User: Which sequence fits this backbone?
């Protein structure tokens, strides 16, 4: 898939199809026939999570409309969600930042058992995320975080890397703040209410604990990430390239008439491997689109599954060719999306090639499994976009 525009937009191809007697539906009237497997298995976050709830709502719509049965495998860890995909026990996953970590071979995937994963995104649901502080912290802008108590959660790569990126927005690092180690995400949010910390980064806007913080004596505040600060966004996306500007209108401490310039990231991302059949992927994306009216009002998250939003870049991995085919048909996929996708495909090809070289060097140099991660992460520095 070197350049999908040439495959799907060229008038030459359209002419050939017409000569062969192959017809296409009129613009705005896609073919209604959708062919899905009788049974599908998806992996997702734990039962009760936003990702699981969204997956359940969509799968219910697919069952009602197409009689396909969907089994959802919940897991509270990145590896637990990816393992069924790798093993073939699940075809699709409702994933988050582990998509990017997987294709890049980072964090949980920076070891001999895993390495870079050839993931492809099909749809990427945009969700708001921010960096929350207490009203009593004295923090009004991001620069005020210097010297403040910022949470670090061991093993929570997704949360920690977003916090690092949010600090970088104003040129700060972990060395510029007091790093407070807490055991879990919930403990981090409780730490705000209890006055143990000042800042928690990588926070989903609608976490129930945040509403409690809003009404507590500590108060709540969301420092903003102005889209106009190009240098700030450049620093942040150098660490987390899947983040983008996002205006938030609803949430604890946020008024609709006074929205906040926060961050948009893809959660959940409907993800599969590149090997997945393109026709099946095309049909599943079409099914998500054609049943949208059946699930869009389930909760406040669901409207953002509209393909005009979820079918756009950036995401944690390149989009699957089957998904792009449908998005082009619907007029959603743009030249900008195509450029982003091609660049990412070239990058992950370099990563995969370097991984093979690294494995060969590991054997010839006698590098142990214990030392492998450090060796691989140093090798990755050779990759230039």
Assistant:
């Amino acid at each position: 898939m070197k350049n999908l525009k040439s495959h799907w937009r060229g008038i030459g191809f359209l002419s050939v199809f017409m000569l062969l007697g192959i017809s296409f539906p009129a613009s705005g009237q896609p073919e209604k026939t959708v062919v899905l497997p009788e049974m599908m298995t998806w992996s997702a976050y734990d039962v009760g999570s936003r990702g699981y709830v969204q997956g359940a709502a969509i799968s219910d719509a697919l069952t009602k409309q197409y009689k396909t049965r969907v089994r959802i495998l919940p897991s509270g860890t990145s590896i637990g969600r990816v393992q069924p995909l790798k093993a073939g026990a699940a075809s699709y996953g409702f994933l988050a930042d582990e998509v990017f970590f997987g294709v890049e071979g980072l964090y949980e995937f920076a070891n001999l058992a895993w390495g870079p994963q050839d993931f492809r995104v099909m749809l990427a649901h945009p969700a708001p995320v921010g960096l929350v502080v207490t009203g009593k912290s004295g923090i009004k802008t991001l620069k005020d975080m210097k010297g403040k108590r910022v949470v670090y959660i061991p093993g929570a790569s997704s949360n920690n890397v977003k916090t690092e990126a949010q600090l970088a927005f104003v040129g700060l690092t972990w060395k510029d703040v007091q790093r407070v180690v807490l055991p879990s995400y919930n403990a981090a949010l409780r730490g705000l209410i209890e006055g143990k910390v000042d800042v928690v980064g990588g926070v989903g806007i609608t976490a129930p604990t945040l509403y409690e913080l809003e009404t507590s004596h500590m108060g709540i505040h969301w420092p903003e990430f102005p889209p106009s600060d190009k240098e700030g966004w450049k620093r942040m996306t150098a660490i987390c390239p899947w983040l983008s500007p996002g205006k938030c209108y609803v949430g604890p401490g946020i008024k609709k008439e006074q929205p906040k310039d926060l961050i948009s990231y893809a959660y959940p991302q409907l993800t599969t491997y590149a090997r997945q059949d393109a026709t099946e992927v095309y049909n599943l994306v079409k099914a998500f689109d054609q049943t949208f009216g059946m699930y869009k009002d389930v909760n406040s998250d669901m409207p953002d599954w509209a393909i005009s939003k979820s079918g756009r870049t950036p995401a944690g991995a390149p989009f699957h060719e089957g998904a792009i085919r449908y998005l082009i048909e619907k007029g959603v996929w743009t030249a900008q999306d195509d450029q982003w996708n091609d660049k990412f495909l070239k990058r992950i090809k370099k990563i995969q090639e370097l991984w093979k070289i690294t494995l060969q060097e590991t054997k010839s140099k006698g590098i142990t499994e214990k030392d492998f991660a450090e060796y691989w992460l140093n090798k990755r520095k050779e990759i230039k976009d």
